[in-house]
Amino acid sequence: MKQQPRSQKAQKLIERMAKKLNRQMVGSLTACVHCGLCTDSCHYVLTNPDDPTYAPAYKADRVRKIFKRHFDWTGRVIPWWVGAESPTTDEDLAELKDIAFGKCTNCRRCTINCPMGVDFAVVNRMMRGLLVSVGVMPEGVAVVSKDQWEIGNQMGVLKEEYLETLEWMSEELSGELDDPGAVIPVDLMDADVVYSINPREVKYDPRSIADAAKIFHIAGEKWTMPSEGWDMTNFGLFSGDDDLGGAVARRLYDKVTELRGRKLVISECGHGYRSTRCEGPNWAGMDVPFVMESSVNTMLRYIREGRITVDKTRNTTPVTFHDSCNNARSCGLYEEPRELLNLVVTDFREMYPNRSENYCCTGGGGAMSMSEYTPRRLKSAKVKADQLAATGASVVVTSCHNCVDGLSDCIRHYKLNMQVTQLVNLVANAIVVPARVAVPAAVEPAAAPVHLSLAGRRILVVDDEPDVLVYYTAVLEDNGATVLEAADGDTALAIARREKPDLITLDLSMPGTDGGKVFEALRHDPDLASIRVCIITGRPELRRLIYDRPVPPPEGYLDKPVDEETLLLNVKKILEVH
Ligand code: SF4
Ligand code: SF4
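That is the input. Now the predicted structure with iron/sulfur cluster docked in place:
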């Protein structure tokens, strides 16, 4: 039988897999002995007992087959014997997408139950990243990733909205404490604590910001919140895109460094904590020059050190605790939240199983952003609903904003009489407010350091709008780049042939030879095909036309208008400069 030619995307995915095969990955791809001990660990299996395609080992095998076919000698020599297979068509990739994004929340419960040390979640994250790199992903993943790349946070919160929310919460706090000095300091230099949050707090839960501010203020902390780079969440963890992970983490680390902060405190968010504290330095390739801790540890420390006093009789409702997969299984935060809970509530009831054996909220791994899998997610949430109901508590506490959403959905769907809250809310409610608190003096922000990170890079800017041309040129030159300019497609091609720039930013709609034709001409010319291209267009509807062309896709794609930060971030990403 004649074999189908491999699709471009499938070919790229296989090629890119080679770069991901470190020791940890290969270990997980080769160590499975198919004992099946992990099977019942998975909440998808427990709620779909008749469907073997949900078993962790089955899901891992879909990736393992590709590894064997291309990177293991047994699969290259006797593929039929070892079950080696590789994806050929885009339909094959769609099937992999369904597994990687729709049948696993990367919760790692199967990992801790594998006697061979197979970490399927790591394998699954790799597959997600490979699929994302060839443009195969749920739409929600594409949208959230784009927001985090371009706007700087997962929920597209604009800087004004963020700062207005801080101002609003600052006023609330001053009013509540009847103390004009009780405010949220922004960009305070040399603070002992820089506090970073999840954009969900700005959008849906600003009270958590005010509660944290109340605790910092009463503890007499010299603290601040950054005006930019404040999002400690990182969609790179979910999408498997290490470049996104590194860029997001670096943004936060750079801001804390600029403010000369001594400690970065991460508000209650499991994936934010894991990304920022545990994975981020590796993705960003940075030595982070300050300490990082979860706000759970900070609050506990304040109580232990006598900096705040709490009265647990203010929280008498029966509560249980849900361990976030990322905080607990992946980062070892098991006992601190329990110790803190027992200090601020009178009736704490464990949920079973708990700690490393707790089940995922079922909204983890970015599942809340993938609406096409919602029915599957809610079906698997039955495991969680049973666990919650068995506690008899009326409040479930969790140190993760993602889990707040996952649990709330589960509670709504299974009609449980429960509410979800976080430790910061309980501590703020239990805190005893002293007469008046001394506030550390503010220091003026330092001037931002000058970055010439594009020095030595040659960039051709192509746009028929003169003011856009001037604007992009100024931004890129201010950052050290040597900029060439073209106002139409023919001039752009002539300059590209003559100068061979490192990058071309390319408008699409231009008189004469339009950007689409220029792009195709570049890709078809062996001398120019390796020049990196970032499309920047005011016509987002042309995206499909660009990506559907039978040539390698552009290295970047931005919708106009593009602000300075977005332009620089994307140019640096494409040129791989930090
Ligand atoms: S427990 Fe480990 S070795 Fe056994 S089937 Fe699962 S992944 Fe494979
Ligand atoms: S990581 Fe979690 S969701 Fe994924 S297969 Fe393992 S137990 Fe199931």
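The mean pLDDT is 93.
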